[in-house]
Write a structure and sequence with these properties.
CATH class of the largest domain: Alpha Beta
Oligomer: single chain
Order of helices and strands: EEHEEEEHEHEEEEHEHHHHHHH
């Protein structure tokens, strides 16, 4: 059980010894949300993790957060707030599952300041567009990350690998307003980079995940198993179909998708990806926002997507959502 105590805290930057100008509220207490909360706090920035009211009946607490990196565990005091707390939110980082994103933001909509910025870190595609269309009066940024992390328990995160996070504008109000997310772009412990085409980055990650995650969920195997000869023809078929579909949306790649997928399978051979983790923990997956997104794209364009249709049908037959 986490060590919690009631308090209202003032986070102080250890370098400048000045009160931060704003607080980052993180919505989504999974692995990535907990990791970013830890790194923001450790950097001396003001960060508050938002949780459901039933998890935090007292609305505001300070608790110990444990982050394990390279075999060493660091404990940090972090502020937790219930989503129905009343303080205003000027900077919102959303790390929920793709399917929960819009409803999660809606749950704190009344707390957003008039010019609050929203930063989205979700797998797949579709949820970003939903938010951008629903919150046209706010600058919305989206991100694609290859950082690895897994949650041992609530407020206890293990860092599994260092990747790259790309952040860019997701709606017109966010364009040319990179200063709003400068904290994140300069966050120690993460490689965060700006991009003027975040859609391309999201498409590239979706393309790779579409050939890996669902197959490992079906076969219950780590990523590297898909390099075996019996799986490679299906991986290749999914890659070819994905490339053809995304090209209709302007996606361009500097190398064949199959090469990128097999490289990821090689360097993450022992990894249990998020889809399989969700299956093993009886949670909904984000596959409807990955392979499911590609099926919707195919239907919208009047194209065939036989391999992705077969994959989604197989998932459904196994009770995997």
């Amino acid at each position: 059980m986490q060590n919690c105590f009631f308090a209202i805290t003032l986070c102080v930057n250890p370098v400048t010894q000045q009160q931060p100008q704003h607080t980052w509220h993180i919505l989504g207490a999974g692995a990535i949300g907990t990791l970013w909360t830890a790194l923001l706090t450790r950097s001396g920035l003001s960060a508050t993790l938002l949780v459901r009211p039933q998890r935090l009946p007292d609305q505001k607490q300070v608790c110990d957060l444990n982050i394990q990196e390279d075999g060493e565990t660091t404990t940090l005091p972090v502020t937790l707030e219930s989503t129905n707390y009343t303080t205003k939110i000027s900077h919102l980082l959303v790390t929920t599952k793709a399917g929960d994103t819009l409803s999660a933001i809606e749950s704190v909509k009344e707390r957003l300041t008039e010019d609050a910025c929203i930063v989205l870190l979700q797998n797949g595609l579709g949820s970003q567009q939903e938010v951008a269309e629903s919150f046209t009066n706010h600058p919305v940024f989206a991100g694609s990350t290859t950082d690895g992390a897994w949650l041992a328990e609530f407020l206890s995160v293990n860092r599994a690998g260092n990747g790259v996070t790309w952040l860019g504008a997701s709606n017109p109000l966010a364009e040319d307003r990179e200063g709003l997310i400068s904290d994140l772009l300069n966050l120690p412990g993460l490689d965060v980079r700006p991009t003027d085409n975040v859609l391309q980055k999201l498409q590239e990650k979706l393309a790779i995940n579409s050939a890996i995650n669902a197959l490992t969920a079906i076969h219950g195997c780590p990523n590297g198993e898909l390099l075996k000869p019996e799986f490679q023809p299906r991986v290749a078929a999914l890659c070819a179909e994905t490339e053809a579909l995304l090209e209709t949306e302007g996606f361009q790649s500097d190398s064949p998708l199959m090469d990128k997928v097999n490289h990821v399978l090689t360097v993450t051979s022992a990894n249990i990806n998020s889809a399989l983790q969700d299956v093993r923990n009886n949670r909904p997956t984000e596959l409807p926002w990955i392979n499911g997104y590609l099926l919707k794209l195919a239907h919208r364009k009047g194209l065939k997507a036989r391999h992705h249709e077969q994959l989604m049908a197989e998932l459904k037959a196994r009770g995997i959502e």
